[in-house]
Amino acid sequence: MRNNLKLFSSLKSTIWLIVKFAVALSIVCWLISGNYHAFIKAITNIKLSWLILGFIFYGLVQGSGALRWYLLLKIQGIRVSFFETLSLTMQGVFFSLVIPGGAIGGDLVRTGFLVSRTPKGNRLAATSTVFMDRFLGMIAQFSIAIIFAFFFIPQIKSMASAPRLTILLILIVSALGLLAAFGLCLHRYLEKISLFSYLIKISNKFSKGFVAESMEIMDVYNASKLTMIKCVIISIFLVQINMSIILFLIAKGLNCPDISTLSLMLSIAMGNTAGLLPITPGGLGTRDAVVKATLTAGGFSTGEAIAIPLLFSMLMISIYLLGGFFFLFHKRSKEHYNIGSQ
């Protein structure tokens, strides 16, 4: 009976992954089909040297993400080399593309490694680094989306109703995400409020101490504010801004006459936020549609606005697939690492 349940669960996950890929492909086909000639015209004289440079920069994005996680691992005193952190980061992005669960599936790969390397009593603290890595990355992403949207208000108003409402929804999600993030970081101050304190006690009771333990772990990170700030800075400049540079390189490769850097920055921030929705693998399709709408409002031609996000996705998929090589050649040590000050 248990084997049948596992088989059913596995089959359901596989079917759901296929459905998500189908949705992503449908969105891409929809973007191209209505503007096929404009798209072909945009990519006719593309310069591959700019795309190669974009590929290298996207590799730097993943390296920056690995650096952020490496700093968080050091807070918990987990002795893992930077190369090993990079290897696991690349494996994570590979599996986020090819297994059910998307980004969560990739995080499970990293979590599984940490669980195998730490004693039972310290596993929550170890796996919290994966959560904090995602958490700080989203703080940067949400912040950039809101900041640049402020300077892009006239263009947002000029959008058609569907993309405009999508952008507004993304901004609302970003604002709520930042509010929740600050609430988590400042939870000790909020505990002084009686209602908040009561809700924590109730939640802790039903979670059998998980909430209290999670807050204690959060205190460890709050005690390393400088490192947390460094991680957010890495997320803003070496990840989010770097992705804007990749879009700029693609635009140069397409020989776009007028390149609006503001719309490039806003489009990738909006697109990445939309990509967090578990609709398609790795945000494929959903990210492209949002980036296309934002670039169109920013003055790019229809063909350019379609070609830029699709080429970006192509570079992203190439790097994600490259992560499979790290999985093949990664040496999995049996050694356990204690958590604590180094």
Q: Tags for this entry?
A:
single chain, mainly alpha, 342 residues, globular
- The helix-strand sequence is HHHHHHHHHHHHHHH
- Global mean pLDDT: 85
Q: Could you give a short account of the major beta sheet?
A: none
Rg from Cα? 21 Å
* Gross geometry: globular
DSSP strand count: 0
Report how far apart the termini are. 47 Å
Number of domains: 1
Relative helix content: over 70%
Low-confidence stretches: none
Q: Helical region count?
A: 15
Into which percentage range does the β-strand content fall? under 5%
* Helix/strand structural class: mainly alpha
Q: What does this 3D model show about the protein?
A:
The structure is a single chain. With 342 residues, the protein is mostly helical. It has one domain (12-329). The chain is 80% helix and 0% strand. It has helices at 2-33, 36-43, 48-75, 82-98, 103-117, 123-150, 153-158, 161-185, 187-190, 194-206, 210-222, 225-253, 261-275, 286-297, 302-329. Helix 3 crosses helix 6 (123-150). The protein is globular. The termini are far apart. The mean pLDDT is 85.
Sum this structure up briefly:
With 342 residues, the protein is mainly alpha-helical.
Topology at a glance:
Layout: H1 2-33, H2 36-43, H3 48-75, H4 82-98, H5 103-117, H6 123-150, H7 153-158, H8 161-185, H9 187-190, H10 194-206, H11 210-222, H12 225-253, H13 261-275, H14 286-297, H15 302-329
Helix pairs in contact: 2-15, 3-4, 3-6, 3-12, 3-15, 4-5, 4-15, 5-6, 6-8, 6-12, 6-13, 12-13, 12-15, 13-14, 14-15
